[in-house]
Amino acid sequence: MCPDTPARLGATPARGSSLAVIIVNYGTAELTVAGIRSVLDRHHGGRRVEMHVVDNASPGDDAAVLARHHAAEGWGARVTLWLEPVNHGFGRGNNLVIDALLARPDAPDHVFLLNPDAALENEALAILADRLDATPSAAVAGAGISLPSGQPVTAAFRFPSARAAFAQATNFGPITRLFDTRLVPLPPDHPDGPVDWVAGAAVMFRLSVLRRTGGFDPDFFLYFEEVELMHRIRAAGHQVLYVPGARVRHAEGAATGVKDDGGPRRRHPSYWYDSWRHYHVKTAGRGGALRAALGWMAGAVLNVPLARLRGQSPAAPKGFFRDFPRHAVRAIRARPPG
């Protein structure tokens, strides 16, 4: 095997598979193993399910841990390991498998993406697949998500906008209520039905639609890639469904270190801002991206004195007033090359 060729353990399953599960791991091997087991331990309504686990050149011995479990637990052809020499990020890591599935004559009907820090709590795959099979207009179905404590969290959303950015950055009750119908996150108890987009931690796509619309945009490394993909799918005329009856447990932020848990403010990595910029430019153009940037900046500025009056820390990420202009605003304003 050439040194730059990814190692793959396991074989393509026999014809007749209708579901493929993809987990992209980076530094969370044991959590990934738990997620794999949660899939293998269920019957999925009698469907045949294949699994693909992409290790994104994790630090430490993640690849060895996954290979050891593959052998010791007898996963065999049910689980294919993609041991990658570089970190592709989330979208490009999933695209490796999606492209390979699309090239097969026996491509499955649906592909389910599961975060490496997530696990099935019920027959979620069967529930989501049944829903897509029964709803020809739908191309995406997302599961309900809860924390390890059992507390449900938001897993259905509206698309981002300048007004939503301003209201959420201001973090002030009267303004939040004024823009209530514009806010991105929907309530954790949002009912079953069509939404703008669903959490990428546990989401099923109709593979035939990905064949027509394309998979994840490779410009994204991490964050916003699933939002942009579902924006593209919605623009093509398909529905995105939130199906809270499908349940998934998610140790939020374990795989990325970026989460909103009410604790001390964290600094967002530069790629988070890059992805924010990519999303807004791709879906609303440079003008729309600038409006969203100005909305977020104005709300963050207004939030500072309001937070002080309430004895709170500012709502913006740590280092926001330096990082956001440098990684987002300047790049939006810059003229494209040529």
TrEMBL record:
<protein>
    <submittedName>
        <fullName>Glycosyltransferase</fullName>
    </submittedName>
</protein>
<dbReference type="Pfam" id="PF13641">
    <property type="entry name" value="Glyco_tranf_2_3"/>
</dbReference>
<keyword id="KW-0808">Transferase</keyword>
<dbReference type="InterPro" id="IPR029044">
    <property type="entry name" value="Nucleotide-diphossugar_trans"/>
</dbReference>
<dbReference type="GO" id="GO:0016740">
    <property type="term" value="F:transferase activity"/>
</dbReference>
